[in-house]
Amino acid sequence: MLWRSLAGVVLSGALYLVRREPWPDGRTLILNIKRSVAAGCSVLLFFWGLVRVPMGEGVALTFLAPVIAILLAAPMLGEKVRGRALLACAIASAGVLVIVWGKAGAGGGQSALMGQLAIVLASLFYAYNLVLLRQSAQASGPIVITFITNVVFLAFYALAAPFAATWPEAHRWPPIFGAAALAIISSLLLAWAYAHAETQILVPVEYTAFVWASILGAIVFGERVLPMTVLGAAMIIGGALMGAGGKAKSVSEAAA
Fold it and tell me: Which end of the chain is more exposed for a tag (fewer CB within 10 A), N or C?
């Protein structure tokens, strides 16, 4: 993540120099830094856990984040969250327990359990990041948000550099820059989307990630998705769709 963030600063910095989006004021800058620190913790915990669990399972566990984001959107953004959001959260939480239980039955061991806990914790940070992204995206452009994110990531991960960093071999740099480019594209699209729609409208889209993660995990790593993982993911998805269901306010209505 340290070197991916370095590559991200180079790529997003070049975009910023070309487009020259307005720099945020002090309050918005602090908001962006808070959001980036939360996202940095989320990404670090997610990748630490992903080493210990299959991709499909790891992504399924992150589906708890949108449910949490829907609940946080009420006190932090003033979005009206319907009463069934609590029931949705309970169903989604039960889905997480199903995934953990299924992995325990498959003999995942202590390492897999620690990986699961790390990803669940990552989802909490990611949910907080999503809500703050909704706030910052209404005040800053996507390129500025992406550039600030990568700068904060680099500074955050550099704290551990004297103790844990090793310089990548030459053949590692193309994948690192490729990963950074994909992350930047994702960040730009997310920032634009959260500037134009409410959190509870957008979060269900997160669930397409389970399909892609399962396919890539099978092709690249030869992983298989456990039936209990599919059942747990379905429960989490169902909970989030329940929480996001109903008519939501448009951006203009929310602003009014």
Answer: C
CB-based contact 221:54 (threshold 8 Å) = yes
* Chain centroid offset of residue 208 CA: 13
CA dist 133 → 16, 30, 36, 108, 165 (Å): 19, 12, 9, 35, 29
Q: If 0-12 CB within 10 Å is exposed, 13-18 middle and 19+ buried, where does residue 131 land?
A: buried
- Where b means 16+ CB within 10 Å and e means fewer, 169-193 reads eeeeeeebbeebeebbeebbebbeb
Would you state the structure tokens that stand for residue 186, as one six-digit string?
Answer: 């994702």
How much is the pTM?
Answer: 0.71
Sign of CA dihedral 234, 238, 98, 96: positive
- Is residue 129 within 8 A of residue 39, CB to CB? The reply is yes
Q: How confident is the prediction along the chain (256 residues), in pLDDT tens digits per residue?
A: 899 999 999 999 999 999 888 888 888 899 999 999 999 999 999 989 988 887 777 777 777 777 777 777 667 766 666 666 667 667 766 776 777 676 655 556 778 788 888 998 998 898 888 888 877 877 888 888 889 999 999 999 999 999 888 999 999 999 999 999 998 998 888 778 877 766 556 666 666 676 677 778 888 888 777 777 778 777 777 766 665 554 444 333 333 3
Q: Which amino acid is at 144?
A: V
Rounded Cα distance, 27 and 34, in Å? 11
For the CA atoms of 156, 151, 180, 122, what is the dihedral angle to 10 degrees? Answer: 40
